[in-house]
């Protein structure tokens, strides 16, 4: 017999739900199922559940938010690093250009050269 409940039920509520669902199982057949909004009961002689089959549960909303936050932080750090690097290179280039310009202007205006 397979009994499933939704995770929001407490142990007591789970037992009540399963007992209520079992009351609706057909007795005149070799198998059957009863489904309610919070639990499901199934029985039968033919195998309907494989213990080797494991279904991965989807990540919870909290885990997804944590992963999304981590990705956003990585993107933010990478973009800020790139922007800072570009600013340093640009400032260095500007100061080098300005220094060369001043040095060249001094050579043309100096009568001793």
TrEMBL record:
<protein>
    <recommendedName>
        <fullName>Gnk2-homologous domain-containing protein</fullName>
    </recommendedName>
</protein>
<keyword id="KW-0812">Transmembrane</keyword>
<keyword id="KW-0677">Repeat</keyword>
<dbReference type="InterPro" id="IPR002902">
    <property type="entry name" value="GNK2"/>
</dbReference>
<keyword id="KW-0732">Signal</keyword>
<feature type="transmembrane region" description="Helical">
    <location>
        <begin position="71"/>
        <end position="97"/>
    </location>
</feature>
<keyword id="KW-1133">Transmembrane helix</keyword>
<dbReference type="InterPro" id="IPR038408">
    <property type="entry name" value="GNK2_sf"/>
</dbReference>
<feature type="domain" description="Gnk2-homologous">
    <location>
        <begin position="1"/>
        <end position="48"/>
    </location>
</feature>
<keyword id="KW-0472">Membrane</keyword>
């Amino acid at each position: 017999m397979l009994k499933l409940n939704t995770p929001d039920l407490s142990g007591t509520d789970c037992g009540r739900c399963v007992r209520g669902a079992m009351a609706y199982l057909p007795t005149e057949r070799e198998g059957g199922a009863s489904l309610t909004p919070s639990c499901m009961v199934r029985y039968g002689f033919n195998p309907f559940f494989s213990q080797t089959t494991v279904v991965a549960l989807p990540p919870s909303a909290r885990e997804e938010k944590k992963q999304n936050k981590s990705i956003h932080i990585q993107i933010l750090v990478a973009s800020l690093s790139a922007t800072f690097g570009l600013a340093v290179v640009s400032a260095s280039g500007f100061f080098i250009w300005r220094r060369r310009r001043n040095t060249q202007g001094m050579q043309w205006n100096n009568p001793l050269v």
